[in-house]
Amino acid sequence: MKSKNHPLLGLHSLLMMIFIYLPIVFIVIYSFNDSRINAKWSGFTWKWYSSLFTDRHVMEALMNSLTIAVVSTVVSTILGTVAALSMRTTGSKMRAGMNGLLYLPIIIPDIIMGLSLLVLFTQIHIPLGKITVMIAHITFSLSYVYVIVTARLTGMGKQLEEAAQDLGASSWQTFRYVTLPQITPGIIAGALIAFTLSLDDFMVSFFVTGPSSTTLPIYIYGQVKRGISPEINALCTILIAVSVILILLAQMFLNKGQGQKKTTLPL
């Protein structure tokens, strides 16, 4: 017998969606407001978006964010993929312990991670700057890549690899022609998630950034303390759009070739 959901559950879900997304909708709407006063709508305009690309401070923060995101994405994707592959061949007890360690950056609060990394960099006398931000972003992005690639490996199974080896393929040939093509969508999805997390991160970056390595989220925070302007709304809208696009692309690659079996991103 098919059960029906209570109507109040649907209403509750709708109210929760409105509560979560309504502030974002207001930011997007007022980024096109011709007036500098958010409380007053004076007409539609694109001028706040065009002014962003002539602002030297915004462009500098953007280049810092992109540089840090690209480097941290490449390194964390490589390390996370290698970790996922190596965990397949370890014993169950060791795998359980290593999984706990690799999941830890996902579980612990960002403020704890940022503070602990700050203490670490201070103790080993590494000056705060782009390098420290990159290391911090690699630290938490690696775990997300590991989780996504591991899920892909688990869904793939070992039948194809064993069949290739039975037919005379070497370990490298099995990896090159069987394993790697199967997990490539997961690797790409993990890389997109790592890039998105790095681009959007504020809390961890706030602790480990230096005076010449201001990222876009930190720049927005500094400007908001002076008051929310239309330029900030426009900048936030661009970040929201980029993040949504990257998340959708990551989900598309993650589900590529899986048929009816869907995997949800660990966010």
From TrEMBL:
SUPFAM superfamilies: MetI-like (SSF161098). Its main location: membrane. Coiled coil: none annotated. Keywords: Cell membrane, Membrane, Transmembrane, Transmembrane helix, Transport. It is found in: Cell membrane. Residues 62-250 form the ABC transmembrane type-1 domain. Pfam families: BPD_transp_1 (PF00528). The keyword Transmembrane applies. It is a multi-pass membrane protein. It comes from the Bacteria. The chain crosses the membrane at residues 12-32, 66-88, 100-121, 133-154, 175-196, 202-222, 234-254. PANTHER family: PUTRESCINE TRANSPORT SYSTEM PERMEASE PROTEIN POTI. Belongs to the binding-protein-dependent transport system permease family. CysTW subfamily. This is Spermidine/putrescine transport system permease protein.
